[in-house]
């Protein structure tokens, strides 16, 4: 696991200093290794490397080339590259006699214990599905174990392709090796020797004075990026298959049946300056159970992208999917329209400041002369989804034919743009065609007085200064076709659990844990969600929340409710999904319930893509003209492909159109109603515990999807 995204500045600085300091170590002869038949030597190195990452392989070879074995030969000569299994090509049919692609929260806690959680029936039952990247990494390691088990050497060093050898590597490895081998016969007294690891149990024994390796009989080591595996150890691991869960976690669970050691200290280190394209299945699970208590904003960290990108082709050739793909890479992409907004077209024509840097399937752009655009923009790139497109005199390196039948569109696109191959699946959106767009007048989209709060920074949020569009409408979008009532519940009847579930989880910025005990309903009375002070393993407060059992795509979503007015608490009525994160909010801040906070989060990508950048969204405070905690009112979200309206008692108080300032969420969302305690006093105010328990009351929840406009 590469922890770049989670390392703080001090950790990163210390790591970088160690990386630089390794060049001051002139002891480059590693007596443990030998390319000859020395029986007491380590004679093979395997580097797990993806075919699409040749730069990593070249860099890893350079790292190994710095060192020589006991006979003076370069370690790179002992090295074999293993072509790693690529998550992009996993078809979902995993041989479960080799790997079961899930694990339990209890297994995670057995390796990485948390003082607030115990291993019990609930954590054993909490199953976590591995990500495709975790599956591919695990299968790659298992295949290398097979090479060791059936190979001609007694042991091998197994490396992932993003590691470095720390200062004094040669001396420290020799100290461990001497303790664990018989110099006369070469017999190995270990199955598995960790050289790269992160200690999870601070009480683990160490012996820095004599540099003796540490026996490991209990779980507590993270990372499997650098380790020595004996032939006997490889056979034992293969005998214990199937593995289940990430490979570094599963290895820990085998310690009681293997001879496992770690070097006295870490002598191989995974690079923290290597951008990780992996995603980790355990993080959302830990957030839900309350073990992650910090919500860290993620910033879209794309390399500087060549721009503008202009793409065209016939309908049905994958243009909408291409627009989504470019957005996932970090482009601010305008797509599927008969024309650009007037000022954007003028800016593109005359090389002025533009709001967008990618244009896909735009009628008014397709009619331009590409040669003229190429001359105006020396870095502009052109993509066609039709094989017969003529690009004229534009150099071949500046245009790409990306036809619908192309086997690996990410490979072609990332090579063309000179960027890292994405770890996420390529989108499969159905082409929308060139929709007729109508620019909206540059007037306020809020009826009452409003205040724009600080927003996230991402390629999918136009800066306020760039929000020259004020949004636009589409006249011929076919994604909303008919009216259909899905849910219509009032508190006169019991909450139908076929339609709703009572949540029992939380999220990092919520200081309360949701519990079904905090939902109350009496005959003839409104339903109630309560927040109270109640000690749990992970939180000091509990609260109530309901969520729809199904997800919806467009429609009208509403509730009759009376919010809480306790400072520090937030009442929420909102639509939400993760992977990719998209959200449409109504929230009431307990410190001032005369205002309604409306918010939109937008991240692009197909369902399952972990695009969740930022945690502020694009919030706006709207004056209500009354106190939402004083009485019941009807609050509704109208959500369509090109517009969102927020209604109160039937009156539209606020609306957003496409790209004002974000695209409109376009993936299925679930409806939620909750009461939660915000970690941010700046947002919600300081909690007055004397006012607890607090309550939100609601008399109805309705969903009409999709709805006529």
Fill in the keyword field for this structure.
single chain; 709 residues; alpha+beta; Spore Coat Polysaccharide Biosynthesis Protein SpsA, Chain A; Rossmann fold; Jelly Rolls; 3 domains; 10-stranded mixed β-sheet; 8-stranded antiparallel β-sheet; 15 helices; 19% helix; 26% strand; GH16_AS; glycosidase; Glyco_trans_25; licheninase activity; EC 3.2.1.73
Beta-strand proportion: 25-35%
Terminal CA distance reads 48 Å
Largest sheet: 10 strands, mixed
- CATH topology-level fold name of the largest domain: Spore Coat Polysaccharide Biosynthesis Protein SpsA, Chain A
Question: pLDDT below 50 for ≥5 consecutive residues: which ranges?
Answer: 1-6, 465-469
Enumerate how many helices there are, as a single number. Answer: 15
Shape: globular
Number of self-contained structural domains: 3
How many strands in all? Answer: 40
Structural class call reads alpha+beta
Second CATH tier, the architecture of the largest domain = Alpha-Beta Complex
Rg: 29 Å
Quaternary organisation of the protein chains? single chain
Kindly provide the name of the CATH class of the largest domain. Alpha Beta
Helix content: 10-25%
Mean pLDDT: 88
GO molecular function, one term: licheninase activity
Family: Belongs to the glycosyl hydrolase 16 family.
Organism: Mycolicibacterium arabiense
EC number: 3.2.1.73
């Amino acid at each position: 696991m590469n922890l770049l995204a989670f390392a703080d500045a001090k950790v990163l600085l210390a790591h970088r200093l160690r990386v630089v300091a390794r060049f001051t170590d002139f002891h480059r002869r590693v007596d443990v290794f030998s390319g000859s038949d020395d029986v007491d030597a380590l004679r093979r190195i395997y580097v797990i490397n993806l075919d699409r990452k040749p730069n990593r392989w070249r860099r890893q070879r350079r790292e190994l080339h710095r060192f020589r074995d006991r006979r003076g030969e370069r370690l790179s000569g002992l090295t074999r590259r293993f072509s790693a299994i690529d998550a992009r090509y996993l078809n979902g049919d995993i041989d479960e006699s080799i790997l079961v692609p899930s694990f339990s929260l209890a297994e995670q806690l057995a390796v990485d214990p948390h003082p607030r959680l115990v291993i019990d029936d609930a954590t054993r039952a909490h199953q976590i599905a591995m990500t495709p990247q975790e599956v591919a990494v695990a299968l790659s390691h298992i295949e290398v174990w097979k090479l060791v088990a059936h190979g001609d050497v007694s042991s091998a060093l197994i490396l992932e392709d993003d590691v470095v050898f720390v200062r004094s590597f040669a001396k420290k490895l020799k100290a461990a090796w001497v303790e664990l081998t018989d110099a006369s016969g070469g017999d190995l007294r270990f199955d598995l020797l960790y050289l790269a690891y992160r200690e999870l149990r601070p009480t683990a024994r160490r012996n820095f004075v004599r540099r003796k390796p540490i026996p490991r009989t209990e779980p507590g080591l993270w990372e499997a990026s650098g380790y020595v595996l004996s032939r006997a150890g490889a056979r034992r691991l293969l005998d214990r298959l199937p593995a289940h869960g990430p490979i570094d976690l599963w290895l820990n669970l085998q310690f009681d049946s293997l001879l496992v050691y770690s070097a006295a200290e870490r002598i191989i280190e995974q690079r923290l300056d290597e951008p990780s394209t992996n995603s980790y299945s355990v993080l959302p699970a830990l957030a839900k159970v309350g073990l992650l208590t910090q919500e860290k904003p993620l910033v879209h960290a794309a390399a500087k992208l060549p721009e503008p990108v202009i793409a065209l082709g016939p309908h049905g050739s994958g243009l909408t999917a291409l627009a989504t793909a470019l957005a996932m890479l970090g482009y601010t992409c305008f797509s599927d329209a008969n024309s650009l907004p007037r000022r954007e077209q003028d800016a593109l024509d005359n090389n002025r400041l533009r709001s967008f840097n990618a244009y896909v399937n735009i009628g008014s752009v397709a009619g331009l002369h590409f040669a003229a655009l190429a001359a105006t923009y020396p870095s502009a790139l052109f993509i066609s989804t039709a094989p017969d497109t003529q690009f004229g005199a534009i150099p071949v390196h500046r245009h790409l034919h990306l036809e619908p039948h192309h086997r690996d569109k990410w490979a072609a696109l990332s090579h063309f743009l000179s960027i890292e191959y994405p770890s996420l699946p390529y989108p499969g959106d159905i082409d929308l065609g060139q929709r007729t767009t109508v620019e909206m007048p540059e007037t306020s989209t809020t009826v009452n007085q409003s205040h724009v709060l600080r927003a996230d920074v991402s390629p999918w949020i136009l800066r306020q200064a760039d929000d020259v569009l004020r949004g636009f409408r589409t006249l011929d979008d076919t994604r909303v076709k008919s009216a259909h009532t899905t849910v219509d519940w009032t508190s006169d009847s019991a909450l139908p659990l076929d339609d709703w579930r009572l949540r029992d989880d939380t999220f990092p910025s919520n200081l309360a844990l949701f519990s079904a005990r905090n939902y109350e309903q009496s005959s003839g009375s409104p339903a109630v969600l309560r927040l109270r002070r109640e000690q749990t393993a992970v939180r000091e407060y509990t609260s109530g929340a309901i969520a729809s059992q199904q997800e919806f795509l467009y429609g009208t979503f509403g509730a009759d409710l009376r919010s809480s007015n306790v400072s520090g608490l937030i009442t929420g009525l909102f639509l939400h999904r993760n992977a990719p994160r998209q959200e449409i909010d109504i929230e009431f801040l307990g410190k001032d319930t005369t205002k309604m906070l409306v918010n939109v989060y937008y991240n692009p990508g197909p369902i399952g893509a972990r695009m969740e950048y930022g945690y502020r969204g694009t919030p706006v405070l709207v004056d209500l003209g009354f106190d939402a905690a004083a009485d019941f009112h009807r609050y509704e979200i109208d959500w369509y492909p090109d517009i969102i309206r927020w209604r109160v008692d039937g009156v539209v108080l606020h609306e957003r159109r496409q790209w004002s300032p974000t695209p409109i969420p376009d993936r299925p969302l679930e409806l939620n109603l909750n009461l939660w305690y915000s970690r941010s006093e700046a947002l919600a105010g300081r909690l007055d515990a004397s006012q607890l328990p607090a309550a939100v009351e609601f008399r109805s929840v309705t969903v009409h999807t999709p709805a006529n406009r």
